[in-house]
Design goal:
Layout (H helix, E strand, L loop, with lengths): L1 E3 L3 H12 L5 E3 L13 E3 H4 L12 E3 L1 E6 L5 E4 L5 E3 L2 H14 L3 E3 L4 E6 L5 E5 L4 E4 L2 E3 L6 H6 L6 E11 L11 E6 L6 E6 L3 E9 H4 L3 H11 L8 E10 L7 E2 L2 E3 L15 H19 L7 H25 L3 H10 L1 H12 L4 H8 L3 H19 L4
Parallel strand pairs: 1-2, 1-12, 2-8, 5-14, 12-19
Antiparallel strand pairs: 3-7, 4-7, 5-6, 9-10, 10-11, 13-16, 13-17, 14-15, 15-16, 18-19
Helix pairs in contact: 1-3, 1-7, 7-8, 8-12, 9-10
The protein binds flavin-adenine dinucleotide.
Flavin-adenine dinucleotide (FAD) binds next to helix 1, strand 13, strand 17 and helix 7.
Length: about 400
């Protein structure tokens, strides 16, 4: 079987499928180790999904946050325990690929997939830019936002996405203490998103993101504003890069025949936080048992994977989407809650640590909150639609 794309979704799917005994070819167009636009924040809930420690690629352990709305008063909160690990994608993705190789995966980098098609016998033919053709009974698209596999096999591309822009500030004398072990989160500058400063080993990562249609010419000025708010000279930023964060329509197909899409290729980014590595790994894990069943002749399609996504991921992504709509009507009161109300901050930390999901947390405020979530989100969405009709 073939997995296209060796980000966290692809390497996880490949590793788990190979561990089940199947022969797996993992192709990526980039030469590894490769970087990609990403904050590299791995929440504790995400790290807990992996059967090995990420310690070798963790550059900082985040235990708190500096929270602020625009240029308002900043409040620093401490969780007293780890909530997120900071990694660089160049190292993280290489590390995950190596774990897949240890499980027997045949990894080939520098192999851009150009064409995928289903043959009359039900097998998939995958052609690369270097002219190679590979044939397999199963193909998994893990090739990120707007991936070739999804396009070739007729999967719907995510109708909504956020755009984010990030850069790195080198810190040759060490990361300033004010940034160590904390994430800086700044809200209210960009519709649908936030600004951040994440600490790494020898630099800090600074970024901004928000709804794509609202972002056209605003990303760079917003990044500069965030820099200035935290005493960073924007001209000192290196490796500026932007990318999409795709968000799928609820219920959109994620598997058909012997093919499936995982991670960003399936549009599974968390709408409120922009966290995508969690769903990449969840979906990579979820597809593996279904591939095994399909190859063993116990299932005639990979639709069991689609069902798993619908049950395991979608309800949480939907709750996150609803919260995102409501939050961005007026971020101020929500951020105030996180800054000053211990219960709200604790619930946020429980989410990042995987001790509770969005729905648990919403319900923990009042039993009425869950039933009110959807109607409140549609009202908020209508309001946003007036401001950003193209969304
Ligand atoms: C600026 C920014 C900051 C972010 N910060 C965070 C964060 O801090 N934490 C978090 O959890 N999420 C973050 N995200 C989201 C996260 O980066 C993605 O959701 C995550 O990378 C998805 O993983 P994936 O494996 O599905 O896809 P990707 O990581 O995008 O991997 C796809 C792979 O497919 C390969 N590929 C693409 N096309 C082809 C082809 N034709 N042939 C072969 N290979 C191909 C690519 O080279 C790539 O290696 C951020 C996103 C952005 C844009």
């Amino acid at each position: 079987m073939i997995v296209v794309g060796a980000g966290p979704a692809g390497s996880t799917a490949a590793r788990e499928i190979a561990q089940g005994g199947a022969r797996v070819l993992l192709l990526d167009r980039a030469r590894f180790p490769r970087d990609k636009p990403c904050g590299g924040g791995i929440t504790i809930r995400t790290a807990a999904l992996l059967p090995f420690s990420l310690d070798p690629v963790v550059e900082d352990v985040v235990t708190g946050a500096r929270l602020r709305v625009r240029g308002g008063r900043e409040v620093t909160r401490d969780a007293g325990r780890p909530i997120t690990y900071m990694t660089q994608r160049r190292h993280l993705d290489q590390f995950l690929v190596e774990r897949a190789q240890e499980a027997g995966v045949d990894f080939r980098d520098g192999q851009a997939v150009r064409r995928v098609h289903r043959r009359p016998d039900g097998c998939y033919e995958v052609r690369t830019g270097s002219g190679d053709a590979h044939v397999a009974r199963v193909v998994i698209g893990a090739d990120g936002a707007n991936g070739v596999v999804a396009t070739a096999l007729g999967y719907e591309h995510a109708p909504e996405s956020a755009l984010a822009l990030e850069g790195n500030l080198p810190c040759p004398n060490g990361v300033p203490e004010a940034f160590q072990h904390r994430v800086v989160l700044n809200f209210g500058h960009l519709p649908g998103g936030y600004g951040w400063v994440f600490p790494k080993g020898d630099h800090v990562n600074v970024g901004v993101g928000g709804w794509k249609p609202a972002m056209a010419k605003r990303l760079r000025p917003a990044l500069h504003r965030i820099c200035r708010l935290y005493d960073i000279d924007p001209s000192d930023l290196r490796d500026l890069r932007g990318h999409h964060l795709p968000m799928q329509r609820p219920g959109a197909l994620t598997a058909a025949g012997g093919s499936a899409v995982v991670g960003d290729a399936a549009g599974l980014v968390d709408p409120l936080s922009g966290e995508g590595i969690h769903a990449a790994i969840v979906s990579g894990r979820a597809v593996a048992p279904e591939v095994r069943r399909y190859l063993d002749g116990e299932a005639s399609t990979l639709s069991g994977y689609h069902e798993a996504v619908q049950h395991e991921l979608l309800p949480e992504l939907e709750a996150s989407r609803a919260l995102m709509e409501i939050f961005h009507v007026a971020p101020g009161p929500f951020v105030w809650g996180l800054q000053h109300w211990g219960f709200a901050w604790k619930q946020g930390c429980r989410l990042l640590r995987g001790e509770a999901g969005y729905r648990d947390i919403v319900g923990s405020f009042t039993p009425l909150a869950m039933p009110l979530l959807k109607p409140a989100a549609s009202l908020a969405r209508r309001r946003h639609a007036r401001a950003f009709p193209e969304r």
